[in-house]
Structures are given as C-alpha cells and as structure tokens.
Backbone:
C-alpha cells in the first residue's frame, strides 16, 4: 500500500526508520514492517518483489 520514512535527527543511534504497509487483497491480510537503520547504510529494494514500490522508494 505505501512506504513511509521517519527521521530521528539527533535522537537515536539509528537515525532513519522505514515503515512498509503491505496488503494482500487475495487473503485480506495487512502487514506492517518497520526497519531502522543508520544514516549511511543501505536497505535492499523491494522492487523485485513489489513492482509498485519503485515510485515510493524513490520519493523517500
């Protein structure tokens, strides 16, 4: 459904937090995944699994 980012500037060791909100229409199940990471670290892209995440990842 969407991807959101939060910046905890100066408040936490892991500065950024990404929240992935996923929805399975077939099974009517929602899944929320939260990933925290440091400022200069990389998180692998989900585009190979969810094609629609391409635009959201570029925006955040």
Residues:
């Amino acid at each position: 459904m969407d991807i959101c980012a939060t910046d905890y500037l100066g408040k936490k060791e892991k500065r950024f937090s990404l929240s992935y909100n996923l929805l399975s229409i077939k099974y009517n199940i929602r899944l929320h995944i939260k990933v925290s990471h440091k400022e200069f670290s990389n998180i692998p892209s989900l585009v190979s699994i969810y094609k629609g995440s391409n635009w959201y990842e570029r925006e955040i």
Summary: The mean pLDDT is 87.
